[in-house]
UniProtKB/TrEMBL annotation:
The family this protein is said to belong to: Belongs to the ABC transporter superfamily. Nitrate/nitrite/cyanate uptake transporter (NitT) (TC 3.A.1.16) family.
GO molecular function: ATP binding; ATP hydrolysis activity
The ABC transporter domain, residue ranges: 3-234
Membrane topology field: Peripheral membrane protein
Recorded superkingdom: Bacteria
GO (cellular component) term, any one: plasma membrane
Keywords: ATP-binding, Nucleotide-binding, Transport
Annotated PROSITE patterns: ABC_TRANSPORTER_1, ABC_TRANSPORTER_2
Entry's localization field: Cell inner membrane
Protein name: Nitrate ABC transporter ATP-binding protein
Amino acid sequence: MFVQIDNISKQFQTQSGNLTVLKNININIDRGEFVCIVGASGSGKSTLLRQIAGLDTPSSGEIRIAGVPVKGPSPDRGMVFQNYTLYPWLSVQENTEFGLKLQGVSKRERRERASYYLNVVGLSDFARCLPNELSGGMKQRVAIARALVCEPQILLMDEPFGALDIHTKESMHEFIIDLWQRTKITILSITHDVEEAVFLSNRIFVLSSRPGTVKKEMTINLAERGANIKRHTIFQDYRDELMVLLRQYGAEGLVAAKV
């Protein structure tokens, strides 16, 4: 397995005592898969992603990427957040180069690599623009290019399309599927959007409410991932099955709030 999440638990200290957010999480992901994790507010989705990214440490258990234990942040894990996190005073090109600059990559190489990935996400013509000159979807493409430019082994996405309007969100769904199919990168995304999870992923892991535990694994087999697939019976059946599971585990009325 490429990503191994073994018996992860996470507790936080509160005024009322220990609060268990994640309990005995076990997930394995193959190289090149697109996996989504869904669950209610408070199920620990974002907390789990932070453990995988190395931004926080689990209370118990271990996470390994390509056999190497996760001990902290690393360029082998690219991260995309919901709110873009672009530097408003830097151009699109400079934002994309930023991680490479921190790594000490030469000016020439980071310009070439950033230009390549801006072309991959379709933003070469906007390289000199500032973030405030871009639409929401374009900003998220810059954030994705910035994550990819360090050539990570896995792309971690924390509800990356939650702040977008429905039309832009659907366009971004098609964009990220095309990007995944072309680059073959492993992607792990968390979402509260049922249709998004079904449309994007090979597999879906359903978390229960706090403490978050893996209650169900769904395998999604869709012949194609174009927008029209959402009108097909197989897509609607997957969507309905996932909704039933979420209701079953106390996740009816999902919202985008994070732990």
